[in-house]
């Protein structure tokens, strides 16, 4: 159950990062509310997962899911560049997360 909570927390991190961008510096109410609700839910689930998972593993996987997901959304929805260097960096991050999960 902690791994499921951690995965959902990571997915919610993607949600709040995307909506924070959409909030235009918290000047738009709707996206700002979604950002704050998703943040609270994400942190709560992370806290739950950390009850039984190691701090380093839980935090690294949580931020990794958020970083990779936000990277993908940035390319897919916001037209951000998918340069070879950025793709290699994202691939290395993904490889690191997989190794960390397998080692846990």
UniProtKB/TrEMBL annotation:
GO biological process: xenobiotic detoxification by transmembrane export across the plasma membrane
Principal location: membrane
Membrane topology listed for this record: Multi-pass membrane protein
Keyword Metal-binding found: no
TM annotation in the entry: 33-50, 57-79, 85-103
Gene3D superfamilies: 1.10.3730.20
Compartments, record wording: Cell membrane
Any Pfam family: Multi_Drug_Res
GO-annotated molecular function: transmembrane transporter activity
Keywords: Cell membrane, Membrane, Transmembrane, Transmembrane helix, Transport
GO cellular component: plasma membrane
Similarity remark: Belongs to the drug/metabolite transporter (DMT) superfamily. Small multidrug resistance (SMR) (TC 2.A.7.1) family. Gdx/SugE subfamily.
PANTHER family, per the entry: GUANIDINIUM EXPORTER, SMR FAMILY PROTON-DEPENDENT DRUG EFFLUX TRANSPORTER SUGE
UniProt protein name: Guanidinium exporter
Organism the protein comes from: Sphingomonas panacis
């Amino acid at each position: 159950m902690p791994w499921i909570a951690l995965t959902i927390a990571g997915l919610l991190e993607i949600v709040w990062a995307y909506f924070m961008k959409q909030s235009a510096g918290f000047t738009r109410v709707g996206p700002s509310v979604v950002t704050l609700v998703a943040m609270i839910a994400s942190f709560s689930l992370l806290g739950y997962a950390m009850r039984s998972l190691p701090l380093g593993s839980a935090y690294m996987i949580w931020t990794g899911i958020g970083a990779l997901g936000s990277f993908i959304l940035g390319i897919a929805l916001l037209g951000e560049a998918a340069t070879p260097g950025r793709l290699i960096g994202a691939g290395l991050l993904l490889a690191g997360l997989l190794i960390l999960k397998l080692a846990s």
